[in-house]
Design brief:
alpha+beta; 3-stranded antiparallel β-sheet; two-stranded antiparallel ribbon; 5 helices; 26% helix; RNA-dir_DNA_polymerase; RT_dom; DNA/RNA_pol_sf
């Protein structure tokens, strides 16, 4: 799954710079600085359950299993006409995301909606709690 692709050096970029995020465990993740884009992005008001809701659902469970969707946002493709808005520039060239990047305002709601749709029946039967950490 290609998350990002090289588009060369000759494309116009509205200037999005890469940001390297380092987590407490020492692992790093490359993100784009999409704050300017987020200012113009319409909010997606899809509800994202909080910790109290998840814990309330889990207290009724007889068994608990955890599944982690590794790089969950990257499971969502980006429409071709949106890719030009998701470009980053660095010394190696200009790149654009082909999958939903981290740092986009609507990414959490979009991912929650996708997971709720996939597991709709299991959620209704209280077999599953979808929680984004």
């Amino acid at each position: 799954m290609d998350v990002i692709r090289d588009i060369g050096h000759n494309e116009i970029v509205e200037i999005t710079t890469p940001v390297l995020i380092t987590w407490h465990d020492g692992k790093s993740r490359l993100c784009g600085d999409f704050r300017a884009l987020n200012n113009y992005t319409k909010a997606d008001r899809y509800p994202i359950p909080g910790i109290p809701h998840a814990l309330d659902q889990l207290k009724k469970a007889r068994y608990i299993t955890k599944m982690d969707c590794m790089k969950g946002f990257h499971q969502n493709g980006v429409k071709p006409n949106s890719m030009k808005l998701l470009r980053i520039i660095c010394y190696m060239g200009i790149y654009e995301y082909t999958r939903m990047p981290f740092g986009i305002k609507i990414a959490p709601a979009h991912f929650q909606r996708m997971m709720d749709t996939i597991f709709q029946e299991e959620i209704l039967e209280h077999w599953i709690v979808v929680y984004i950490d």
